[in-house]
Amino acid sequence: MKRMFVIAGIATALASGSMRLFAESTTVEEHWLAAHAAYDRGDHAEALQHYRAIQAAGIDNAAIWYNLANTHFRAGRIGDAVLHYRRAWYLSPRDPDTAANLELAQQRVGAVSPVPRLIDRAAQELSHAEWTTLFRFAYWLAILAGAVALTVPRSRRFTKPVAITAAGTALLALGGWEYWRRWQHPGEAVVMAPNVTAMYEPREQATPFFTLPEGSIIRLEDRFDAWTKVRAGGKSGWIPSSKVKRVYPWQPTSND
Prior knowledge:
alpha+beta; two-stranded antiparallel ribbon; disordered N terminus
């Protein structure tokens, strides 16, 4: 199991006053240790229960989703494993363990996954939250440096390059932020059942088009009644909405 847990998460929860005690005075740290112990002895249901209790305390980070994914993977639930790995990846796209385990889970069942383009690889060097933070920092630095350059002419030799560089960085960060915004809507989903057949039309009697293995990561395109139109491998088709779960947004304390 990954041990990068949540010292920072616990500290944040304590600072904000959001950390709560559970029944029988079980703290977040105790839930974490209990989850790890349950995972080691193969009690996947108990491990999941403790991880969800941690999320209920207000801690929602890549480490939690990663460990939930590992638990599902060890229990043989590939769809749930891929879904949780992908959520961990969304929060921490550079993490090598998440990427490796996600690939391993999909390879086990022959699941399909989006082929990243050059722009995808570039934008995914930072997470949505990181691009947002970088934009805010660069934007205000550009404003500050520009204001100093205007009010103190002698400083322009130094402040003008700073302002220009910061403005360029802010534009770059805005592009990264926009990439993730477009990624979120309409968003991705994971196939949660084995060998789901995509139809040409949203009805049971429609002509079958292609088959998606469990754990396949697909793009959402449209929805009609109980059907969802998805894209995978350059093809689009309709599958029952009950057979897929969205990667984002999510409810941390749900059974997803």
